[in-house]
Protein backbone atom coordinates (compact mmCIF):
# COMPACT_ATOMS: atom_id res chain seq x y z
CA UNK A 1 0.00 0.00 0.00
CA UNK A 2 1.42 3.39 -0.99
CA UNK A 3 1.43 6.29 1.41
CA UNK A 4 0.68 9.87 0.53
CA UNK A 5 3.67 12.25 0.79
CA UNK A 6 3.17 14.40 3.86
CA UNK A 7 4.48 17.54 2.14
CA UNK A 8 2.49 16.97 -1.09
CA UNK A 9 -1.09 15.94 -0.17
CA UNK A 10 -3.85 15.73 -2.74
CA UNK A 11 -5.64 19.02 -3.15
CA UNK A 12 -8.95 17.57 -1.95
CA UNK A 13 -7.31 16.34 1.25
CA UNK A 14 -5.57 19.69 1.78
CA UNK A 15 -8.88 21.57 1.48
CA UNK A 16 -10.40 19.27 4.09
CA UNK A 17 -7.38 19.63 6.39
CA UNK A 18 -7.75 23.40 6.25
CA UNK A 19 -11.39 23.05 7.35
CA UNK A 20 -12.67 24.64 4.15
CA UNK A 21 -14.97 21.77 3.17
CA UNK A 22 -15.39 18.01 3.21
CA UNK A 23 -13.40 15.76 0.88
CA UNK A 24 -16.51 15.16 -1.25
CA UNK A 25 -17.19 18.90 -1.50
CA UNK A 26 -13.55 19.49 -2.38
CA UNK A 27 -13.78 17.12 -5.32
CA UNK A 28 -16.89 18.92 -6.60
CA UNK A 29 -15.18 22.30 -6.25
CA UNK A 30 -12.09 21.08 -8.09
CA UNK A 31 -13.94 19.64 -11.12
CA UNK A 32 -16.06 22.82 -11.26
CA UNK A 33 -12.90 24.92 -11.54
CA UNK A 34 -13.57 26.74 -8.28
CA UNK A 35 -10.14 26.22 -6.70
CA UNK A 36 -6.98 28.20 -7.46
CA UNK A 37 -3.56 27.14 -6.25
CA UNK A 38 -0.96 29.91 -6.30
CA UNK A 39 -3.23 31.80 -8.69
CA UNK A 40 -3.81 28.93 -11.15
CA UNK A 41 -7.10 27.03 -11.51
CA UNK A 42 -6.67 23.34 -10.64
CA UNK A 43 -9.51 21.19 -12.02
CA UNK A 44 -7.90 17.75 -12.11
CA UNK A 45 -8.73 15.35 -9.28
CA UNK A 46 -5.71 13.80 -7.59
CA UNK A 47 -3.48 16.83 -8.10
CA UNK A 48 -0.92 17.15 -5.34
CA UNK A 49 -0.04 20.50 -3.82
CA UNK A 50 2.54 21.90 -1.46
CA UNK A 51 1.39 22.63 2.08
CA UNK A 52 2.78 26.13 1.64
CA UNK A 53 0.73 26.82 -1.51
CA UNK A 54 -1.81 29.64 -1.44
CA UNK A 55 -5.32 28.30 -2.01
CA UNK A 56 -8.21 30.54 -3.08
CA UNK A 57 -11.85 29.49 -3.36
CA UNK A 58 -14.35 30.90 -5.88
CA UNK A 59 -17.33 32.70 -4.36
CA UNK A 60 -19.64 30.24 -6.14
CA UNK A 61 -18.30 27.47 -3.90
CA UNK A 62 -19.08 29.57 -0.82
CA UNK A 63 -22.60 30.25 -2.08
CA UNK A 64 -23.18 26.54 -2.63
CA UNK A 65 -21.84 25.80 0.85
CA UNK A 66 -24.16 28.36 2.45
CA UNK A 67 -27.13 26.46 1.02
CA UNK A 68 -26.23 23.34 2.98
CA UNK A 69 -28.47 22.74 5.99
CA UNK A 70 -28.03 21.27 9.44
CA UNK A 71 -31.10 20.06 11.30
CA UNK A 72 -31.66 19.47 15.01
CA UNK A 73 -34.21 16.73 15.78
CA UNK A 74 -35.58 15.62 19.13
CA UNK A 75 -35.52 11.89 18.37
CA UNK A 76 -38.28 9.83 19.98
CA UNK A 77 -37.75 6.34 21.38
CA UNK A 78 -38.40 3.64 18.77
CA UNK A 79 -36.56 5.25 15.85
CA UNK A 80 -33.02 4.46 14.73
CA UNK A 81 -30.70 7.38 14.16
CA UNK A 82 -29.20 6.08 10.90
CA UNK A 83 -30.44 3.74 8.20
CA UNK A 84 -33.57 1.62 8.76
CA UNK A 85 -32.80 -1.65 10.52
CA UNK A 86 -34.66 -4.62 11.99
CA UNK A 87 -38.00 -3.19 10.92
CA UNK A 88 -37.45 0.14 12.68
CA UNK A 89 -37.80 3.41 10.81
CA UNK A 90 -34.98 5.95 10.61
CA UNK A 91 -35.65 9.17 12.51
CA UNK A 92 -35.21 11.12 9.26
CA UNK A 93 -38.80 10.17 8.31
CA UNK A 94 -39.83 12.78 10.89
CA UNK A 95 -38.06 15.59 9.04
CA UNK A 96 -41.02 16.87 7.07
CA UNK A 97 -42.83 20.22 7.05
CA UNK A 98 -45.64 19.24 9.43
CA UNK A 99 -43.12 18.25 12.13
CA UNK A 100 -41.13 21.46 11.97
CA UNK A 101 -41.12 23.23 15.33
CA UNK A 102 -43.16 26.43 15.37
CA UNK A 103 -40.42 28.00 17.47
CA UNK A 104 -37.84 27.63 14.68
CA UNK A 105 -36.42 31.14 14.23
CA UNK A 106 -33.66 30.27 11.76
CA UNK A 107 -35.29 32.23 8.94
CA UNK A 108 -34.83 29.28 6.55
CA UNK A 109 -37.54 27.88 4.30
CA UNK A 110 -37.98 24.13 3.91
CA UNK A 111 -37.20 22.57 0.53
CA UNK A 112 -37.31 18.80 -0.17
CA UNK A 113 -33.83 19.01 -1.74
CA UNK A 114 -32.50 19.70 1.77
CA UNK A 115 -33.10 16.02 2.52
CA UNK A 116 -30.57 14.93 -0.12
CA UNK A 117 -27.31 13.92 1.46
CA UNK A 118 -28.65 14.64 4.94
CA UNK A 119 -26.71 12.34 7.24
CA UNK A 120 -26.55 11.76 11.01
CA UNK A 121 -23.55 13.37 12.71
CA UNK A 122 -23.44 10.85 15.56
CA UNK A 123 -26.06 8.44 16.83
CA UNK A 124 -28.54 7.68 19.57
CA UNK A 125 -29.72 4.20 20.52
CA UNK A 126 -33.24 3.18 19.56
CA UNK A 127 -34.31 3.26 23.21
CA UNK A 128 -32.84 6.74 23.81
CA UNK A 129 -34.29 10.14 23.02
CA UNK A 130 -33.09 13.69 22.58
CA UNK A 131 -30.85 15.79 20.39
CA UNK A 132 -29.81 14.36 17.03
CA UNK A 133 -27.86 16.33 14.45
CA UNK A 134 -28.42 15.72 10.74
CA UNK A 135 -26.33 17.65 8.26
CA UNK A 136 -25.44 18.11 4.61
CA UNK A 137 -22.28 19.95 5.69
CA UNK A 138 -19.19 17.79 5.75
CA UNK A 139 -17.37 20.28 7.99
CA UNK A 140 -19.96 19.79 10.74
CA UNK A 141 -19.98 16.01 10.29
CA UNK A 142 -16.20 15.96 10.67
CA UNK A 143 -16.37 18.19 13.74
CA UNK A 144 -18.92 15.97 15.51
CA UNK A 145 -17.77 12.48 14.54
CA UNK A 146 -14.13 13.05 13.68
CA UNK A 147 -12.82 12.68 17.22
CA UNK A 148 -12.59 16.40 17.86
CA UNK A 149 -13.64 16.19 21.49
CA UNK A 150 -17.08 17.85 21.31
CA UNK A 151 -18.85 17.25 24.63
CA UNK A 152 -22.34 15.79 24.66
CA UNK A 153 -24.60 16.05 27.70
CA UNK A 154 -27.24 13.56 28.83
CA UNK A 155 -29.88 13.16 31.50
CA UNK A 156 -29.97 9.53 32.64
CA UNK A 157 -32.71 8.08 34.84
CA UNK A 158 -31.42 5.16 36.89
CA UNK A 159 -32.45 2.57 39.45
CA UNK A 160 -30.09 1.23 42.08
CA UNK A 161 -27.64 2.45 44.71
CA UNK A 162 -24.53 4.44 43.77
CA UNK A 163 -21.84 5.06 46.37
CA UNK A 164 -19.40 7.96 46.30
CA UNK A 165 -16.71 5.51 45.21
CA UNK A 166 -19.01 4.34 42.42
CA UNK A 167 -19.55 7.92 41.31
CA UNK A 168 -15.80 8.54 41.22
CA UNK A 169 -15.35 5.36 39.18
CA UNK A 170 -17.93 6.54 36.63
CA UNK A 171 -16.02 9.79 36.30
CA UNK A 172 -12.51 8.41 35.95
CA UNK A 173 -12.01 4.68 36.33
CA UNK A 174 -13.86 2.63 33.73
CA UNK A 175 -12.75 0.56 30.77
CA UNK A 176 -14.97 -0.67 27.93
CA UNK A 177 -13.92 -3.18 25.27
CA UNK A 178 -10.41 -3.12 26.71
CA UNK A 179 -10.09 0.65 26.25
CA UNK A 180 -9.82 3.14 29.11
CA UNK A 181 -12.56 5.73 28.80
CA UNK A 182 -11.90 9.45 28.80
CA UNK A 183 -12.81 11.27 32.03
CA UNK A 184 -16.56 11.93 32.21
CA UNK A 185 -18.55 14.62 33.97
CA UNK A 186 -21.07 12.76 36.14
CA UNK A 187 -23.23 14.28 38.87
CA UNK A 188 -26.65 13.74 40.42
CA UNK A 189 -29.35 15.86 38.77
CA UNK A 190 -31.96 14.71 41.30
CA UNK A 191 -32.59 11.65 43.45
CA UNK A 192 -33.07 9.24 40.53
CA UNK A 193 -31.37 11.00 37.63
CA UNK A 194 -27.71 11.50 36.71
CA UNK A 195 -26.25 14.12 34.39
CA UNK A 196 -23.44 12.86 32.13
CA UNK A 197 -21.01 14.90 30.05
CA UNK A 198 -19.02 12.75 27.57
CA UNK A 199 -16.36 13.53 25.00
CA UNK A 200 -16.60 10.17 23.26
CA UNK A 201 -19.41 7.90 22.12
CA UNK A 202 -18.77 4.20 22.30
CA UNK A 203 -21.70 1.91 21.55
CA UNK A 204 -24.27 2.08 24.37
CA UNK A 205 -21.56 3.65 26.48
CA UNK A 206 -23.65 5.26 29.22
CA UNK A 207 -25.84 2.19 29.71
CA UNK A 208 -22.77 -0.03 29.99
CA UNK A 209 -21.04 2.41 32.35
CA UNK A 210 -24.08 2.42 34.62
CA UNK A 211 -24.39 -1.37 34.53
CA UNK A 212 -20.77 -1.70 35.63
CA UNK A 213 -21.61 0.52 38.62
CA UNK A 214 -24.64 -1.59 39.56
CA UNK A 215 -27.25 0.77 38.10
CA UNK A 216 -30.07 0.07 35.69
CA UNK A 217 -30.83 2.79 33.15
CA UNK A 218 -34.56 3.41 32.74
CA UNK A 219 -34.37 6.52 30.57
CA UNK A 220 -31.71 8.38 28.59
CA UNK A 221 -32.02 11.76 26.91
CA UNK A 222 -29.34 13.84 25.14
CA UNK A 223 -29.82 17.53 25.92
CA UNK A 224 -26.72 19.16 24.45
CA UNK A 225 -24.11 18.68 21.74
CA UNK A 226 -21.23 21.11 22.09
CA UNK A 227 -22.78 24.55 22.48
CA UNK A 228 -26.12 23.58 20.90
CA UNK A 229 -28.95 22.85 23.33
CA UNK A 230 -32.06 20.74 22.83
CA UNK A 231 -33.96 23.38 24.79
CA UNK A 232 -37.73 23.49 24.31
CA UNK A 233 -37.74 21.47 21.07
CA UNK A 234 -40.61 18.96 21.47
CA UNK A 235 -40.12 15.21 20.98
CA UNK A 236 -40.55 14.23 17.33
CA UNK A 237 -40.06 17.78 16.03
CA UNK A 238 -37.11 19.45 14.33
CA UNK A 239 -35.61 22.82 13.53
CA UNK A 240 -32.81 24.25 11.41
CA UNK A 241 -29.50 25.15 13.01
CA UNK A 242 -29.39 28.95 13.13
CA UNK A 243 -26.62 30.94 11.44
CA UNK A 244 -25.45 32.22 14.84
CA UNK A 245 -25.13 28.72 16.33
CA UNK A 246 -22.10 26.48 16.30
CA UNK A 247 -20.98 23.30 17.99
The profile of the biggest β sheet is: 9 strands, mixed
Intertermini distance: 36 Å
**Rough outline:** globular
Radius of gyration: 21 Å
Oligomer: single chain
Question: How much helix, percentage-wise, in residues?
Answer: 10-25%
Number of strands: 14
Approximately what portion of the residues adopt beta-strand conformation? 25-35%
Would you state the CATH class of the largest domain?
Answer: Alpha Beta
List low-confidence stretches.
Answer: none
- Count of spatially separate domains: 3
**How confident is the prediction overall: mean pLDDT?**
92
Description of the structure:
- Helices cover 20% and strands 25% of the residues.
- The chain is an alpha+beta fold and 247 residues long.
- Strands 4, 5, 6, 7, 10, 11, 12, 13 and 14 form a nine-stranded mixed beta sheet that branches. The chain has a three-stranded antiparallel beta sheet with strand order 2-1-3. Strands 8-9 form a two-stranded antiparallel ribbon.
Tags for this model:
247 residues; alpha+beta; Structural Genomics Hypothetical 15.5 Kd Protein In mrcA-pckA Intergenic Region, Chain A; Pseudouridine synthase; 3 domains; 14 strands
Task: Provide a brief overview of the structure.
The protein is α+β, with helices and mostly antiparallel strands and 247 residues long.
Topology of helices and strands:
Elements: H1 11-17, H2 23-31, E1 35-37, E2 40-41, E3 55-57, H3 59-66, E4 70-75, E5 119-120, E6 129-135, H4 138-145, E7 152-159, H5 164-172, E8 175-176, E9 179-180, E10 185-190, E11 193-198, H6 205-212, E12 216-225, E13 228-229, E14 238-240
Parallel strand pairs: 6-12
Antiparallel strand pairs: 1-2, 1-3, 4-6, 4-14, 5-6, 7-11, 7-12, 8-9, 10-11, 12-13
Helix pairs in contact: 1-2
